[in-house]
Design goal:
By secondary structure, this protein is an alpha/beta fold. Helix content is 33%, strand content 22%. The protein has helices spanning 18-30, 41-51, 69-78, 118-127, and strands at residues 10-14, 34-38, 55-61, 86-91, 108-113. Helix 1 (18-30) links the parallel strand 1 and strand 2. The longest helix is centred in the first third of the chain and has 13 residues, at 18-30. It is globular.
Length: 134
């Protein structure tokens, strides 16, 4: 299953951890998916605005300085910007509904718990249509 990968070729990884950005960049690169990265939600927001036409997925950490992932997704939703881009949050703890009602975020596909596992991550990316199923 493939989604927009024919027209769009990039994902953006937004995480304040350089090691998380590096490992995800490696995994996407191995699948021939281009990666844009940002160190926090504020930088990610600017890059999303600039690179919107090529983005198919936003993967954002929840807990970050300057703008967390929930705030980023809420800001995009309020502006009705990026509704055509899939959205996934990374977190180290099981999220509670008190953080933000993600049912109201267009194209929100869920949470991935850290630490990241390549096999589980690959299955999730196949399920949402970013990676081709083999």
């Amino acid at each position: 299953m493939e989604i927009f990968v024919s027209e769009r070729k990039s994902v953006i990884i937004i995480d304040d951890s350089e090691s998380v950005r590096s490992i995800l960049t490696l995994w996407f690169s191995e699948k021939k998916v281009d990666v844009i990265s940002a160190k926090d939600g504020a930088e990610g927001y600017k890059k999303i605005k600039e690179k919107h036409a090529e983005l198919v997925l936003i993967i954002s950490d929840y807990n970050m300085p300057n703008m967390n992932g929930g705030e980023l997704f809420q800001k995009l939703e309020e502006e009705q910007f990026g509704n055509d881009i899939l959205k996934i949050l990374l977190t180290t703890e099981t999220p509670g509904s008190h953080l933000l009602d993600f049912k109201n975020i267009t194209n929100f596909k869920g949470w991935i718990l850290k630490p990241l596992n390549e096999s589980k991550f690959t299955k999730i990316m196949e399920k949402v249509g970013i990676f081709k199923t083999t």
